[in-house]
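Chain A, query sequence.
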Amino acid sequence: MSILQKSTSTEMIIQGKIGLRAIEDDDLEQLRDWRNQPHFRKNFREVKELGMYNQRAWLTKVNQSSNDYMFAILELENNRLIGAGGLLYIDWILRSADFSIYIGEKGEYLNSEGYGGDAAKGLLEYGFNFLNMNKIWMELYEYDNAKIDFFTKKMGFKIDGKLRQNCFYKGAYYDSLIISLLATEYHELTNSNNNTLTI
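Chain A, predicted structure.
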């Protein structure tokens, strides 16, 4: 991972084929449209339809918080917005953060073999090596197989536990899985793979 200084004076985190930069006002409409897709929204804790008022209020809250780091995910070749991700609800005593990521382009949700994998690696390296996190965790609904499989089978996350009937979707209750990756596990994985996670 490297930091690239853009001509617009916006710093960008570079990982493979993607860049991570601060979310700007011009990104909000596209991010809203992706978030409002039903097959995306069912996996998020915020399930209501979002409007531009919600988006602007959310970005203001994130920008004012010292506990939330959200990024636009860009495809580097064409500098094109393709998704969003970040580290949220940071507890600076426990040094833990909630991991959020999605690839919106083409409705993919998580393209684990390309952009999604690079974005996840970049965010994890930023969290562990720059913010000095000890644990990065996620809450995933039991039907979110794309993320459960990707993060547990390819990124080294472990299942910490289950929250029973913690989600309601289309007339049924579903469990949530809490998964996490510790700093010691991350460094063990990266040290054994030339300082990078292998996907």
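The helical segments are 28-35, 38-41, 52-64, 115-130, 145-153, 183-191. The first strand starts at residue 2 and ends at 5.
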